[in-house]
């Protein structure tokens, strides 16, 4: 019994590290997970082409799915799994590779159990968030990023209660700049982020009014300040981009707007070390394949 699912990456509107409330939108870069059930009771993960990658998150995620649902699916005796991810999302770059890996694994495991339709996608998403907390790869649980990747569109969430406050389908183009470094969320300076809480509260207000572009830009300046990332990429996108921000805890930046504007920004960002990609936003989220 094999299962397979694909989950998209996401960009940030509001980083949740200041107040616990966050907002993100799905973009068209993907992680695929395959889950093969076994009878040895062991869960073993691998990440394609990244033998050094930490497999704790996807293993915990598959374990939680089996603990929660294997019996309901009619499986008795020890059940194990071989989990494999294959990803085009750079890891620890602020583009939510962890949320995509957890969502794809959760849905692939449910697919292997043949019970995808019996479980709400938002519950599968919460299970991935639990796995992320257990694996220690997150500061707040990152339900904002996970919900955007699971449901598609832009979501606003309370990560303290894993509650979805708003979801809307947006149809933007997004430009993503990823410098060559990595920044693991678990290592982010949460205390520094908490100092910009008044600005994060303003970003939340703007996002809940549907003013996502302005929300992103305020978020960008606030969190570049708190996390000491350069504001140059933000300024190079302004004033023409609809919104531009540091994505997550960095080091990537994401701008949204019309294609002509983003192509001009792309030329400016191309002078920097790293990669720039023009991608579509996604409204469909995680799906089995
Ligand atoms: N394709 C993947 N397969 C398995 N685990 C992954 C994958 N991508 C990310 N992860 C997990 O997520 C961690 C990175 O999470 P994080 O620092 O939050 O970065 P990001 O912003 O990309 O989500 C990795 O150390 C690993 O545990
Ligand atoms: O670990 C977390 O709780 C979070 C990490 C950040 O994202 P990245 O994982 O992309 O850095 C942030 O934007 C998000 O709101 C919450």
From TrEMBL:
SUPFAM superfamilies: Ribosomal protein S5 domain 2-like
Gene: aroK
EC identifiers of the protein: 2.7.1.71
Protein name in UniProt: Shikimate kinase
HAMAP family, A to Z: Shik_kinase_arch
Binding-site residues for ATP, renumbered to this chain: 90-100
Organism from which the protein derives: Natronococcus jeotgali DSM 18795
ATP-binding in keyword set: yes
PANTHER family: HOMOSERINE/4-DIPHOSPHOCYTIDYL-2-C-METHYL-D-ERYTHRITOL KINASE, SHIKIMATE KINASE
GO annotations of cellular component type: cytoplasm
GO process annotations (BP): amino acid biosynthetic process; aromatic amino acid family biosynthetic process; chorismate biosynthetic process
Residues in coiled coil: none
């Amino acid at each position: 019994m094999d299962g397979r699912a694909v989950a998209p990456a996401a960009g940030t509107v509001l980083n949740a590290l200041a107040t616990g409330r966050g907002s993100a939108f799905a973009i068209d870069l993907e992680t695929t997970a395959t889950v093969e059930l076994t009878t040895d009771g062991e869960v073993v993960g691998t990440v394609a082409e990244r033998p050094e990658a930490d497999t704790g998150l996807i293993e915990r995620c598959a374990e939680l799915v089996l603990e929660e649902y294997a019996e309901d699916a009619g499986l008795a005796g020890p059940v194990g799994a071989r989990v494999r991810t294959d990803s085009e999302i750079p890891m620890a770059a602020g583009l939510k590779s962890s949320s995509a890996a957890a969502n794809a694994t959760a849905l692939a495991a449910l697919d292997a159990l043949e019970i995808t339709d019996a479980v709400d996608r938002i519950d599968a998403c919460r299970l991935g968030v639990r796995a992320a907390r257990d694996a220690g790869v997150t500061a707040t649980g990152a339900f904002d990023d996970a919900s955007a990747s699971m449901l598609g569109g832009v979501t606003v969430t309370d990560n303290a209660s894993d509650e979805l406050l708003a979801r809307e389908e947006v149809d933007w183009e997004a430009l993503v700049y990823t410098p060559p470094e990595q920044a693991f969320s678990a290592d982010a300076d949460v205390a520094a982020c908490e100092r910009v809480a008044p600005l994060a509260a303003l970003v939340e207000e703007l996002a809940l009014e549907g003013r996502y572009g302005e929300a992103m830009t305020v978020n960008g300046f606030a969190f570049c300040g708190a996390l000491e990332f350069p504001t140059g990429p933000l300024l190079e996108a302004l004033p023409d981009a609809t919104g531009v921000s540091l994505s997550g805890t960095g080091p990537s930046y994401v701008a949204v707007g019309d294609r002509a504007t983003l192509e001009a920004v792309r030329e400016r960002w191309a002078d920097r070390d790293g990669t720039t990609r023009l991608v579509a936003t996604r409204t469909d989220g995680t799906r089995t394949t």
